[in-house]
Amino acid sequence: MKSDLANFMELNPYSKKCKPDLIDLKGMELGELQNFCEKFGEPNFRGKQLFDWIYNIDEISFDRMMNLPGSFRQNLMRVAKVGRFASADIQESIDGTEKYSWVLADSSIVESVRIPMIHAGNIKRWSICISTQVGCAMGCKFCLTGKMGFVRQLTSGEIVEQFLAAKRRLGENDRFHNIVFMGMGEPLDNFEEMKKAAQILTDPGFEGVAKKRLTVSTVGISNKIKDFLKSIPDVGLAISLHASDDFTRSKLVPVNKKWNLSSLITICRNLSSKDIKRITFEYVLLKGVNDSEKDANELVRILNGIRTKINLIPWNEFQGVNFKSPDEKNVEKFQKILKKNGFVTTVRKSKGADISAACGQLADISILKNGTN
Q1: What residues act catalytically?
Q2: Tally of domains within the chain
Q3: Taking CA 183 as the corner, what is the angle to CA 181 and CA 187, rounded to the nearest 5 degrees?
Q4: Which tens digit of pLDDT belongs to each residue from 44-69?
Q5: How far apart are alpha carbons 75 and 72 in whole angstroms?
Q6: Are residues 60 and 136 in the same domain?
Q7: I need a labelling partner for 67 at 20 to 30 A (CA). Which of 58, 158, 339, 352 fits?
């Protein structure tokens, strides 16, 4: 029978390495860190000290964690590490957006985006778009990540490290006001690791964000939505809809063949205010595909009675597909119909398109060029 410590030393199931590695403490929640410390005979409060060093102070060297006993630090150096990305390619947009291509320990590449948001009084606030997988298995036809295909799941530590690594580039008085899990991958397809990362990033003891300022976007994996809302209460939910009928949605979003609009909308309609105050529906507008007045009116019909905000996203173009961005007049007509029927409706202004950092443009280009998918 394996000892508790041996269980901690198990190879990460998402790693491509063939030999056991040190335990990565980054990605452990407070309770896990406390349990980890107890395995060494250390008191419970050592877990909180480790939590502060790893997440608030952003320290990776156990040698510098001076409020920990020397013997404990020696034990930590023997079996554990605090992971950090190997390197990054950073691109800066003319609008102030930054895209990061992080190199992971197994040489996989994952991308995230820092986005400036200008508020009243010309006050700049920052949002960060974080990935939950390397690639994506959902195969949405208008998404570059979908063309890349699925490579592997990200660990909770790799998800949290995207936030910490981007935070290192902020100015002294800057901070992130919003986190969105809308980068590469389907968050609910990596449920447990995503959940742990969300709980760390919204932990009251971590200088991350409040729960209401973290939003998780899903293509609509119906059987996991309720589990998500129970596991991470008060976090925002955004559902990628993209069509108002099953025929069109199945062509654009293949997962609709398994969890169709009827099942998805029924779940959303039956959610109580205790589950979530309001759902955001995301709708990518594609010229001549889903941007007609008929589409808008059908969207009004199927969403009637649901507490929702609708976020319209004119498609961000890339080569290799036959879609086109919608005409501006069509976007205005579409929004007008929704607003006339009482829906709070916004049109997302794309940022970072000049560096392929806009919605649906994140991907490891080397995989696309090699035709791995």
Answers
A1: 111, 359
A2: 2
A3: 50
A4: 999 999 999 999 999 999 999 999 99
A5: 5
A6: no
A7: 158
- The 10s digit of each residue's pLDDT in 59-97 is 999 999 999 999 999 999 999 999 999 888 999 999 999
Question: Which residue range forms the structural domain that includes residue 23?
Answer: 4-81
The H or E element that residue 247 is part of is helix 246-252
- Residue 171 tokens, joined: 């100015």
**Domain ends where: 39, 54, 81?**
81
Co-location of 97 and 162 in the same domain: yes
CA distance 198 to 189: 14
| Beta pairing, strands 236-240 & 150-153 | unpaired
Whether the per-residue pLDDT at 6 is higher than 60: the answer is no
List, in sequence order, every residue forming a beta bridge with 115; answer none if it has no partner. 127
Does residue 269 share a domain with residue 358?
Answer: yes
101 with 109: CB under 8 angstroms? yes
Has residue 352 got a pLDDT over 50? yes
Distance from chain centroid for Cα 47 = 26
User: What confidence category does residue 123 fall into, taking pLDDT thresholds of 50, 70 and 90?
Assistant: low
Last residue of a domain, one of 81, 98, 122: 81
